[in-house]
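Hey, sorry to bother you again with one of my protein questions. I've been puzzling over a protein and I'd love to understand its fold better. Take your time with it, there's no hurry, and the full record follows here:
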Amino acid sequence: MKLIQQLKKSILLKTSAVYTLTNIINAAIPFLMMPILTRELTPVDYGIVSMFQVLVGIVAPFTGLSVNGAINRKYYDRDKIDFPKYVANSIILLLSSTLIVGILFILFSKGISDISAFPKGWLWAVLVVSFCQFIISIVLVHWQVQVKPLFFGIFQISNTLLNVGLSLWFVLGLNFNWQGRIQGQVVTAILFAIVGFIILNKNGWIKWGLNKEYMKNGLQFGLPLIPHTLGAFIITMSDRLFLTNMVGVAETGLYTVGYQFGNIIGLVQDAFNKAWVPWLFGKLKVGEEETKKQIVKITYIYFVVILTGALLLSVLAPWFLSFFVGEEFRDASKYVFWVALGYAFNGMYKLVGNYIFYAEKTKYLAWITFLTAILNIIFTYVMIKINGPIGAAQATALAFFISFILTWILSSRIYKMPWFSFNNK
């Protein structure tokens, strides 16, 4: 087939394979920690660590104001702008927004701690990690848009290895329990943000100097993405907030283990999308109609593959978790099917949503995601009430499906693709 021949010759398959391998290795390292941590930590400890990730996810869109997405897009306009200066002004926005978020954290620390069941004295760690992740993401974005998956993979895997190594040392060697797991993440984030900043400077990817137009453009792109990013976070993380408050933090720990296994589908689809975006944007810039038909064919094939993968993973989960995790966590397999299905829908959403990013119409995508997030809050509460803890995972899958359908409809209106007329003539 012509399509298969094109794919074999395309850089898409090669880069996708590297990103997939990187994601597998990157995920396998902390995944292999589960047999150790589920025997060393209690479900309550695991729940506290999970809530730390929830808080980082909430804060991240506001530290940096999602301007890292603008950096990704503006790389393709680097012949029209001073791109290194654009990056520098994005970092200035990061510093300003982090200061504001830090002040709010101080003012509302007690309320945040009460709602999240996360210790007030550790809230500083949330702000530090979210700040450092932005710097790290800028480095990764540069390698992604330049189609350098090997550098991307080495940096990301090294980050994870240090994170895991320090966490195990703090938990096993120093008996710090949940505190050790969080300390491992904090120290790693700081070190890799420093390394990332050095890389940005050394490669000439930063040129200091205030530019109001660049800052304005970054905000115009990034601010509408805050509802989008926050909405996406609510869909993926609000389940844990509800479980913590409606069932208990121990059930949140159990849920997190099942979620990690189901998220294997999320890692695979994310790897494909990392390779897909630079390839897709390059093809869309040319704008050939025949190429668009080929893109649609690949998209439909991908939909079938990712849904099949989610089903297979859920079948294997009970058997695998029966010996892989500690005895207290083995019931986590009940969550895997719904989590895997949700991430399959999320992968489908990413493919249709990329056209909205290319067209720079992110404000519309933001409102769809935020609307879906509000629905997810309602779904989660109602379904936990009706079906118990499993309702949290079911609500997440439903929210991802709605997000995918609405985004596909929006995408088809913003950027025309031959979704229903892709046969070759």
Observations:
- The mean pLDDT is 82.
